[in-house]
Amino acid sequence: MPRATAKSKSSDAGVSSDQRRRAGTIVRRLAKTYPDAECALVHRNPYELVAATILSAQCTDERVNLTTPALFKKYPTPEKLARAKQADVEKLVQSCGFFRSKAKSLLGMARGLVENHDGKVPQDLDSLVKLPGVGRKTANVVLGVAFGIPSGVVVDTHVKRISNLLGLTRSKNPEIIERDLMAVLPKKHWIDYSHRLIHHGRQICKARKPACTDCPLLSVCPRVGLDPLE
């Protein structure tokens, strides 16, 4: 039988050796460039992180961070938020857009925590996604940031766009992208990969005007046509 080459398929979900090497190089360079990258949503506890992440849908982190201080001052615990009136919450989160549906999700989330989890944020994916307003992306954020649990890879617009540019996925579907990234990235890097790629998308690999000459990933970016793997 012929020997397996470097480009042969691995037994793990059809991921090739070159894909793993590319992913490894990308992870190392991102870690060197953004060693302190972390979640941009300001929070003091898991409850606040869940609420802030719900508000971040189709809204900038900066806007959310301007909105949440007043929200958390009035409703510092799930118990207090669960007793709030819809109209009162709407006024506090109006600047985040889609404020009616977000206020409804916040109230539902708080009531779910109080009624089913003694007011505490659960530490498992299945329980989290049952809370109103909490999808898989939000659950991954909360588990990764608040508890250090790598339940999956958070796929936001930056992760979606840049992971495609880097050849780590060919899909535009966030669920498929997440599966592709989970297959090729070491599990210990699932949490930091998203944070660092988000920082990279905001600082260098900008959608409209990427600063390619300043990019630490330039030599492994298929878009440029260079590929010396480390």
From TrEMBL:
Coiled coil: none annotated. Residues 55-203 form the HhH-GPD domain. One of its GO terms (molecular function) is class I DNA-(apurinic or apyrimidinic site) endonuclease activity. It catalyses: 2'-deoxyribonucleotide-(2'-deoxyribose 5'-phosphate)-2'-deoxyribonucleotide-DNA = a 3'-end 2'-deoxyribonucleotide-(2,3-dehydro-2,3-deoxyribose 5'-phosphate)-DNA + a 5'-end 5'-phospho-2'-deoxyribonucleoside-DNA + H(+). SMART domains: ENDO3c, FES. Binds 1 [4Fe-4S] cluster. It comes from the Bacteria. Keywords: 4Fe-4S, DNA damage, DNA repair, DNA-binding, Glycosidase, Hydrolase, Iron, Iron-sulfur, Lyase, Metal-binding. DNA repair enzyme that has both DNA N-glycosylase activity and AP-lyase activity. The DNA N-glycosylase activity releases various damaged pyrimidines from DNA by cleaving the N-glycosidic bond, leaving an AP (apurinic/apyrimidinic) site. The AP-lyase activity cleaves the phosphodiester bond 3' to the AP site by a beta-elimination, leaving a 3'-terminal unsaturated sugar and a product with a terminal 5'-phosphate. This is Endonuclease III.
